[in-house]
Amino acid sequence: MQPQIRLAPDVQESLCCPRCRARLNHAGEQFTCANPGCAAGYPIVDGIPVLIDEQASIFSLDDFVSHRTTFVSNAGECRVKTTLRRWLPTIDRNLRAKANYRRMSSALLEQSPAPRVLVLGGGILGQGLEELARNTAVDLVESDVSFGPRTRLICDAHDLPFPDETFDGVVVQAVLEHVVDPYRCAAEIHRVLKPRGIVYAETPFVQQVHGGRYDFTRFTHLGHRRLFRRFEEMDSGAVCGPAMALAWSYQYFLLSFTTSRTLRLFLRVFARLTAFPLKYVDYYLANRPAALDATAVYYFMGRKSGQTLPDRDLIQQYRGAI
């Protein structure tokens, strides 16, 4: 028996072809585009629709049908790595996500009694996202380009399989550094949001490669703001500060000496044990103007707007210390 589709029926009804945006027909183990000129087929794998336009994506449908590793490995970690990850102190500290998600939740509920939020990169629960997820009035549609414990839909952020003005909110946390064209993804987010819909994004500035071949871009604070120039800013700033950036740089400095997996595992353990206190310095630094020029990760929260922020106005928004 084919597993039940993990999307709610009303979400299924809103799906459209990522290639031509025509409606989809569901039959058996796949969706088929209703546009005769397109007629693209999309498989359903373990109850998860795979709505990827192979003509435009770096992924293929067969990647998911065959359960190949895409961004995140489908195979579990070895027991040693799992144990170390669980018990070692981390060098990461997200200072603002919980409060930001609480604010986003309140703003969404002011606009709608039952807001629907698309989560891009939602195969696992992002840091602080539980503040939004635990609100039963908010309907999360969790998508990713990998199978994960929370993945309900496979889709590529460059071509979202939804009609215009479908969602009240979009979350894109630690994702836009991993897409080949973040500006196209931001345009898609704008397209699928309802008028005055809210986007929440977190994207790194000073953070080393952490997605292997799927890691492409970094943004300054103003660069991040320009990415969302078609949105009215509600708030922006640092979620992970300069101290975390220093800890990551220290870890990757050590890792630069070897490609041996065994030695790199040892060096990661050593880096965590010796650098984890640094992240607490960010409680003091992160909100200082000079820190905005050296922070690890920025956030942006904004509302969909009908206007575009001019570049001349953009540069007036610089808040650093240079």
Sum up the structure in keywords.
322 residues, alpha/beta, Rossmann fold, 11-stranded mixed sheet, 21% strand
Explain what the structure shows.
The chain has 322 residues and is an alpha/beta fold. It contains 11 helices and 11 strands. It has helices at residues 9-14, 61-65, 79-87, 97-111, 130-133, 182-192, 221-227, 242-255, 261-275, 282-285, 311-314, and strands at residues 24-27, 30-33, 41-45, 48-51, 116-120, 139-144, 153-155, 167-173, 193-204, 231-240, 297-304. It has an 11-stranded mixed β-sheet, sandwiched between helices. The chain is globular.
Biggest sheet strand line-up: 1-2-3-4-7-6-5-8-9-11-10
Instruction: Domain count, please report it.
Output: 2
Shape: globular
CATH fold topology of the largest domain: Rossmann fold
Low-confidence segments, ≥5 residues, pLDDT <50?
none
**Which sheet architecture does the biggest sheet show?**
11 strands, mixed
**Number of helical stretches of at least 4 residues:** 11
Distance between the termini: 63 Å
Mean pLDDT: 95
Write the layout of secondary structure elements.
Layout: H1 9-14, E1 24-27, E2 30-33, E3 41-45, E4 48-51, H2 61-65, H3 79-87, H4 97-111, E5 116-120, H5 130-133, E6 139-144, E7 153-155, E8 167-173, H6 182-192, E9 193-204, H7 221-227, E10 231-240, H8 242-255, H9 261-275, H10 282-285, E11 297-304, H11 311-314
